[in-house]
Amino acid sequence: MIKILTSAARIFVGLLFMFSGFIKSNDPKGTGIKLNEYFDVFASDFQRTQDSVLISFSDNYGNLDSSWIYLNAKDSFKYLQLNRSFVSKVTTTDSESSEDTTSTIDTTTSLSTDVFVVLDDNNLFKHRYRLKDKNDQHIVKLSAVSGSDSVLFSDNFTVSNNNKLEEVIPLNVYTIVHPEHFLVGFFRALKPFSVLFSVILCILEIVLGFAILIGWKPKLTAWTILITILFFTFLTWYSAYYNKVTDCGCFGDFIKLEPWTSFYKDLVLLVLIVFLFFRRKHIVPLFSPLFSWNAMSIITIASTAFAVYCNSYLPVWDFLPYKVGNNITELMVPPAGMRDRDSVQLLFIMEKDGVKKPFMLDAYAKASADGWKYVDRKDSIIIKAWKSPIHDFDFSKRDENDVNIKDSILNSNSWQILIISGDLDKANEDAWADIQQLANDAKAKGLPVYAVTSSSLEDADVFASEHQLPFKFNNADNVLLKTMMRSNPGVIFWHKACVMGKWSSRNIPKISKLEKLMQ
Whole-angstrom Cα distance, residue 65 to residue 59? Predict the structure, then answer.
């Protein structure tokens, strides 16, 4: 019986590891995005709460203004500036309601003045003071106090015709800044290598699953797979318990698991792997050492080649909502019988004689009449609403005369080309010459060409000019663009809201290829 359980555990663990690794290696960039989520969460969890500073401005008339500024670990100085500009009045009366015209004039002729408080080139406060004559003056006080009551600065200043009031005040905020935990920088430093880690992780899963199946080096395999599952179990527990990463990405976009479901899955795997770990001396290799080595070499090379190919081009099997053949409009419509809103149960927490008790909505009125006092309300979702996989499909317009790309894609009957480049600074430079040629050929044949990026439009315009691109970029959310296209840049060919073709930066199509799709 023990032998049968050992064999069953080997098969189950091995196949599940291989399946998980294969699905993720089909989309290494997607797994890299998920790793970046974990790196961001871990970095933010180790961040130390920084102090804040209250900047206050007051005067001898009782005027008071204040503003909080928040610090980060890299701050050393904040620079406050106190200055003034002169204002002339075009009225002959002293009425406070008269109209003002601002102009720079000599101090001897000024009747009023604006006093500004500026922090790091950002205007915080502005106050206007009347100066009745050259001897008139006002006293203003400027102070900076930290949230922990450390006084960084406090002084009085005179506003008059005889002083310019041009002060630069350095605030030594480094004295109240908490040094950042070294792990914050560590996790942030891992982000540029997320795709590399993704590829390594995918290959490791496939190789370990195959190794446990054929019984290759049982001791080494048992130790490695145990450490791996302990790592995965920690991640899924962390995601579930703290609700930080709502999808662990265990099976990429092929199967979406709830955080606790992922944790329980890993818990079952952990039990089986611990059983195999203690039975490692009884794991019998299925093949000879030479054949096993050759098999392991082949599976390692094959899984590496597959992951590198999918990372360099596009996923072989696209499980994303914008895959070829999908109609975006249809995916936005709830299926028959599905709810478009959550079904929510309202619970009112009420108190009477020191006792707190929850009441549902239909019992609330009676409880109030019986002397129960409302304390709090807790809502719980009974039935979740259907959520479309296409819930953030939107692009900004450059101006009122610009084409609405979203409406054009969803409602137009024409064929359309959409160029996608999430971050122009990280785009594959070699692709732009082919994109330029495609866009020129498409426009010559009357095909609309649109382009979207998450980079600023100013940078995008400069980029388009430098590469002589015959189109202007619009803006879109980077998460949306990564979901639509795993390549930077990439091309999507549309017809009647349907995705007809997708190409990565390494195989930008010729216009002849698009014409074949249009036939």
Answer: 10
